[in-house]
Amino acid sequence: YSLNGVPCRGKVLTVDNMNPNVKRVEYAVRGPIVQRAVQIEKELREGVKKPFTEVIKANIGDAHAMGQKPITFLRQVLALCSYPELLEDNKFPEDAKKRAQRILGACGGHSIGAYSASQGIECVRQDVARYIEKRDGGIPSNPDNIYLSTGASDAIVTMLKLLVCGEGRDRTGVMISIPQYPLYSAALADLGAVQISYYLDEEKCWSLDVAELRRALNAARQHCNPRVLCIINPGNPTGQVQSRQCIEDVIRFAKEEHLFLMADEVYQDNVYAEGCKFHSFKKVLFEMGPEYSSTVEMASFHSTSKCYMGECGFRGGYMEVINMDPEVKTQLTKLVSVRLCPPVPGQALLDLVVNPPQPDEPSYITFMKERTAVLSALAEKARLTEQTFNAVPGITCNPVQGAMYTFPRITLPEKAIDKAKEEGKVPDMYYCMRLLEEEGICLVPGSGFGQREGTFHFRMTILPPTEKLKVVLQKIRDFHVRFTQEFS
Amino acid sequence: MNAALSTRGGSQEKMTENGMMSRAKVLTIDTINPTVKKVEYAVRGPIVQRAVELERELSQGMKKPFAEVIKANIGDAHAMGQQPITFFRQVLALCSYPELLSDNTFPEDAKSRACRILQSCGGHSMGAYSASQGIDSVREDVARYIERRDGGVPCDPDDIYLTTGASDGIVTMLKLLVCGEGASRTGVMISIPQYPLYSAALAELGAVQINYYLNEEKCWSLDIPELQRALDEARQYCNPRALCIINPGNPTGQVQSRKCIEDVIQFAAKERLFLMADEVYQDNVYADGCQFHSFKKVLFEMGPEYSDTVELASFHSTSKCYMGECGFRGGYMELINMDDEVKAQLTKLVSVRLCPPVPGQALMDLVVNPPQPGEPSYDNFIKERTATLSALAEKAKLTEQVLNTVQGISCNPVQGAMYSFPRITIPEKAVKEATEKGQQPDMFYCMKMLEETGICLVPGSGFGQKDGTYHFRMTILPPSDKLKILLDKVKEFHQKFTQQYS
Q: ipTM value of the model?
């Protein structure tokens, strides 16, 4: 009732009559703790006094936001594509101009403002296929199996959407690791599919164990129709780089159990640890011979957001589909056409990522220098992070073998867990909120990614510049000691 | 060979030719998401696929009755030769490669816009993720634009969500709205004809599409009794909750009168419908006596009884108007009177996809914050903008005129947007042949036109039309001289076709 006594009606769209699946969606990477971090930033700007002068957003894999520089060559070509008058400008190297002209030649009206084909600009898809072939030692890639996308997230969601069907006990089940990157849990909630969790082995450096896959699958068969197995390699949040043997085992398992494989490989250039190497699922699949390579259905995903580029804002990405049924492929092509096309600047950027300066080209040396600097800085920070955390009593940190994150396990005193419960918070959220309020460091609690019951973690990026990272690590160390003390 | 599909346990065996057991695939047309199968999107449907095939054949040297395929199926201005706005591209280049800020070939106003945008980006780079709702300063600029456009009606930047094209915002909104089962399933009202993103999204979401017919005899105007009819009928089998309107219209080009917009708002208020106003063509108004009236402005001018209560989402984009920057996928939606808890859910939902493309956000910033009088780029900007819009107005007129000279084609005035949607008379014999071939008659017609003239249009059946009527949608985007030729060829084809099937 309004003030004057006239009955006023509820809104048309309320929390009670909105899409129920949407309510189930959570995405911790930008969830409540980040919202609080943004609020605190606002307060700082307004002059509110805090125990710190800035908020450090170590919650999200956003390299440029943390000071990483873009690759010069990539940005030169993008500028040329945006404003082709610059092709007359001799500040730009010839190889940049050539790439820009090739891209523009493939665009409608020679403009990046035209829609592209819905599957993505053809010559970019050809370049992606050639890149995959080079990467995989010559295993053929058909450009027709490449779909450019709005970041890898777009393609992952599209693939999951295609796969979901059935009702009740026949509802599609999708296997995903615990811990996982919460796009997967969010997408499965949104689609009303069944999430089938398989635990990575923290004691064994977050490795994947086929016996655990089998356990999870068999349990799931009681209440859903498992059809898909998702794997993130290198891993997010865990950073593990799976061994070749493991990848073979997963492929074998997928074939035996008739599962569609989704291989999220967006961190494929981010491999740091000695003895670790990125093995693409496709390469391993084909090396296992035709019994596997002509039957296992697979989609692999890549992005311009990570690796050495860190171009998150451009939303560039692609997926390669292997052994997809042609009728399904037609449906996929139809589905992506409704959204017209992925952003063309992102497609252009992807073209450069898969077709970078070659040794005989003018931009090569600078390109390699910049690329190497970024990747070696990350490797350094990965090592530093692991070392520092492992020196803290109550924090254990697996080696950061790859990707951009550390996911250390934290011991929380019983009293702290009780306090968290009182406040209606999950214990590691309580911990991270305290860290945010006291130190201005924003991490994501492990509960946002999934973890074994009774264990607690947080995910922190290794992206801040080395000097700042050292300070962040020290502050977390000091906080942890204080926190443990407070609740002892 | 058939695949008897078991649902669990994975094993779906079938016999191959050599007697070996092989399995059906995990993902087949029978096990794919059933709502995806129901999705159609004619603007890039079968006729366009055939057009692409023909282009390939032409490039391989095959002889055809035409030298090029003209893709008049899609509202892609740049693909049809329209030039980008210089100022926008200058700023985008500066944002992409900030070293250019020291280059004196760029005007100061472009540089200052670029600096402002970059300052709002993480690490001063367009490569950083933005806030999921969109860059703060861009949303502020969008809000100021809306206030100026709407004669001062206040706009809160917090009600603005930047999106990956308008399509993204529209699909997100529809997703939020859909709930219920069976007779309580959400119903969404959309015009016939409509832009088939709506029908596609509703099919995918498993929502109920409620068709209301625009009045072809009255220049595609919207008629409240027709809305009422459609709604009352729909209440028998679904729960109608949303009303979508595209103004200026796609494919019809009609620009609704202010009175009509008031009536629609009143209707939505009375019938408790969430209003979705697709206004991506708001600068594309050509006909004398026509004017764009934003739903929000009209809503607020109707007083607090309406402006405090009617829930409205309006959508805009960088793809149309005078910019035509389709490839950047820039857009926004403004939400009026949305429940706070729902807004929190929306914010959460868009966070999963991180953020819309930053170049598109930057572009949107320039669209809503263009060169002002006194700024170095102003004259050139206005010149380019005016040239584009007046060319479109010219082509709208030309199209209507030429098509109306053809016996068997009648074309309503193209009041706005970028398309003509003329009605075509198809001879009985042709309808029969089409039916025999399992094709919609206007698809049959358009396919023939494509094969014989290389002109690619979209059949009216892709947008919806009254039973027994046929149309096609053609863009008015090709350059004037090419458009003239195009229109003459369409005329010629129609006459030949009519003759052939008389």
A: 0.96
